[in-house]
Amino acid sequence: MNNEALKDLLYKMADDALIIGHRNSEWTGIGPMLEEDLAFSSMAQDKIGHAKALYQILHEILGEPEPDKVAFLREENRFKCCQFVELPIGEYDFSLVRQFLFDHAEAVRYDMLTSSSFQPLALLAKKVKGEIKYHVMHADTFLKQLGTGNEESHARMQSALNYAMPYALGIFEKGPFENELIQQGVFAGEEAAKNKWLEKIAPVLQAAGLQLPEISDDKIIYGGRKGFHSEYLKPLLDEMCEVVRLDPVAEW
What we know:
Blueprint: H1 3-25, H2 34-60, H3 67-72, H4 92-113, H5 119-147, H6 151-169, H7 178-183, H8 190-207, H9 233-240, H10 242-246
Helix pairs in contact: 1-2, 2-5, 4-5, 4-6, 4-8
């Protein structure tokens, strides 16, 4: 089994989870209502926990540095997260749509990985998919409520979906080891994941009265998996890593 292929897959999953976890945490104390304040805070904790578990596999089995080091001491161009997770939280409509699109993608990915030939990842997937199920339920519920609420809420949700979709499709950017991962039974591939994702989100969007926008290939926002990021990632990392970088060898 190709260790570099495994590292590429695990890093992009872990980096996605770490960055979206940090973004979700920014709703703490400012949610549109207490229930959502708590929900986004709880989901942020879950995401960072998923990131840590993936970094731990990278460290213990694949020889990468300790989780804290790879999370807090890498430069921007070493991160493999998609640009979608980097975007600021914006208004609640965007954050909810992002959560809906991202967590459905995560649910599909982890469900596929329960049968991975890389057993540490398959075991983690079986645990994580149960947590993500509740994230998906949260997003589906509020998406339907706001999509069918009134004229303004519907328009705002549709606008957020139109904006988010080119970034969301970038989740499924193929890496250099795509064929190896498929051939070795580690992961069935980004194209298969994207197709399953589209099948999952389509009926929910229809129930919410929202139209899935058609995005041509040349409009999809790629680059994050290869270290090319939006203008928003570096400031986020500077904030997230400020304390650790003051004294990387400090013990707490």
